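[#protein-structures] MJ: dropping O-fucosyltransferase family protein here for a structure pass
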Amino acid sequence: MSIVSRPFRFKDRKKGERCFLFCLFYSGRKKMIQRRRRRMVAVDKPRKILVCTVCVIALVGLLMGYVHVFPSPRASDSSDPHKLPTQHEFNYQKLSAEKKWTEEVAPPHLSKQQSSPHLPKAPVSLHKFDGASGNLDSEKLWKLPEYRDFVPCIQPSSNYTTPDKTRGYLLVRTNGDLSQMRTGICDMVAVARIINATLVVPELDKRSFWRDTSNFSDVFDEDHFINALANDVKVVKKLPKELSSGTKIVKHFKSMSSFKYYRDVIGSLWEEYRVIRAAKSDSRLTNNNLPSDIQKLRCRACYEALRFAPQIEAMGKLLVERMRSYGHFIALHLRYEKDMLAYSGCTHGLSNAEAKELETIRDETANWKVKEIDATEQRYRGQCPLTPKEVGIFLNALGFPSETPIFIAAGEIYGGVTHMADLRSRYPLLMSKENLASAAELEPFTNHSSQMAALDYIVSVESDVFIPSYSGNMAGAVEGHRRFLGHRKTISPDRRGLVHLFGQIEKGLLKEGSKLSNRIIEIHKNLQGSPRRRGGSVPGTKSMESTHSEEAFYTNPLPDCLCQRASQTVNTSIRESNRKLDRSMQKEQLLLLKVL
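AK: finished. structure tokens for O-fucosyltransferase family protein:
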């Protein structure tokens, strides 16, 4: 800028004084706003630079009075260090910041110095995870659900007492897969509280399809479980010796039973017995209409007390870190194992020989009551898991690019490479426990289905997006845990709606593309894990059928164990007040610029 002196003029002094006074007024106004605004954030850097620059110019004009400024021919060649970015520059900076997390950094365990044959190397093209519409669409794919202002509220009420002298001992034999055993154990903690019993550390299921020999301490942190529940239920590792050979009653607790049933019916057994053995643990306690303290106890047991064993936690954390090295990732609970397909009777896309094998397994499994299943009807009712091929179509329609890292949380996929070929062709970066860790690292957990499932559970809970191909026990347990931890994004496929769309594709009536994508996105816009109250029974159902149609407690612990930080009215009022203050300050800034 060029500076030329000229004679002093009185009106220049007046103008400088007005500018200086306005600066003082603006500074006082800003302080007043800061006092009124309870949680006012600091003014951003560009605003500070603007105010300081204007005040300096006004002060110089007041003191010198004779300064005359006009553009220099060389001004356009120099850059002003205090120049505010233009709107274009702001956009460029935003996109640059968004790109950072999409730029893949070679994971430590994939570097040349540390590469191992058991770990798949990322394709050369995996430098970013841009969707078809660029980074902004990619950002939406990983965006968390809205209205996530819910936090855990599981502390007991003021009249909640610590356990005193109990009336007897409760033995529990759990049943089912890992997730069934987890929720069953938590329910038995609540039952022990209701009937005033000392809970003996539960026995894990060793007789089901999986034939797992793991004990409680092999899967869960036994000491932590006992100590964490000290103020709720007395827990011991073993039954006292004097009672080991005594008379016990083996009781099949009624499915989905109420507080009154346990208090009155089961509680009355203490008059004759000192030891009650629960023959089963899954789904023994109703989802709703229980005292608030009992519901909160179920959550404390599930999300705080029932922690995995240290060696499982450590291995699970390692798997998560290795997946994170690829960037944001999906955990896909691909329920396409032999036991699931045999149990559900789903044979779509399988050969006749495979369908026959599954039918034989179902017939020979004694505790599976339903033997005759119409596979086609089952599929169109939405009762079948999505096939790997269908999952690939689904993910592509949602907009996930082919470079997306996917962790397969599952056991051995039925049909192996053959049935995974289509999914892998769409999404080559498919990962699992077996190719993220070496055989030596997994050796302590191999041949123990519950321990291997626990590793899948940990990665699924910690993933950026969780997608189950079937709404089974693990899918519900993981979804509920993710809700409890802050409503992390969980996309629940509408299988019934999807099957009809996939049927149209197979018949040539619909092609993959924008039309299919728009329809699938529309169907799932409200199925992404946003906070909502737990669903009740299906209208028109009665008695036990009505109870079984309710949404499971551990799939959605809202409202019993989650509370809003503040009411929606207060939040709305704060947001509106902040917007008004921002508009007011913007107007003052514009006025100041006009004066200058």
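MJ: nice. Residues 274 and 282 are 23 Å apart (CA to CA).
AK: one more thing. Residues 568-595 form the longest helix (28 residues).
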